[in-house]
Design goal:
Elements lengths: L2 H17 L5 H8 L3 H13 L3 E4 L3 E4 L1 H23 L8 H8 L5 H11 L24 E2 L8 E7 L4 H9 L7 E7 L6 E5 L2 E5 L1 H4 L2 E4 L1
Antiparallel strand pairs: 1-2, 3-8, 4-5, 4-8, 5-6, 6-7
Helix pairs in contact: 1-2, 1-4, 2-3, 4-5, 4-6
Amino acid sequence: MTYSEEDYIKAIYHLSKDLKSFASTSDIAAQLDTKASSVTDMIQKLSDKKVVHYKKYQGVRLTEKGEIYAASIVRKHRLWEYFLVEKLNFSWDEVHDVAEELEHIKSEKLIERLDVFLGFPKMDPHGDPIPDQHGQIPDIKKILLSAMKDEQRGIVIGVKDSSSKFLRYLDKLNIALGTEIKVLEKEAFDNSMAIVIDHKTVHISAITAANIYIKT
């Protein structure tokens, strides 16, 4: 697989998981910031390699072969993110772009030794589960902060939006993995929230609350 093909496979993997259905060409194009015509051409190439299945009017999803390949890419990406944060002291908002390059390394031996070296981590620095060497992903029960009710408490275990801008914003709010949050009040007008972090009241938007995963 070329780097570009791997990027498409990973994008389809994430989109189909999020949507729990086929990924449309427009969704893929938006995810990869490319033209719909380019997506159509790539889908044909990937279909010829038996890694995707295209269904007219529904979109595309990965075959079993494609799922295995995608899980391997995701595994490498998240292991490298963990390595960069834990061993090289990168901050969690710096690692995504670097891991995007490192995930294309082909050596399985290197990745398995990296996993051993890191002590078999289960989650990356953003709280996303790391697939094991067989492509299996641990089931982590979580809800979005936006789904919590008044007076409910929980621990931050991940983020839906792992962009650098959002992560830097969370740093300003002193929100990180492991932060304990209590919901004081959800505003009926716009679903914004008043929450308590370290005995301090913080007001967050509905968009922010919809991008933070909590374990209650």
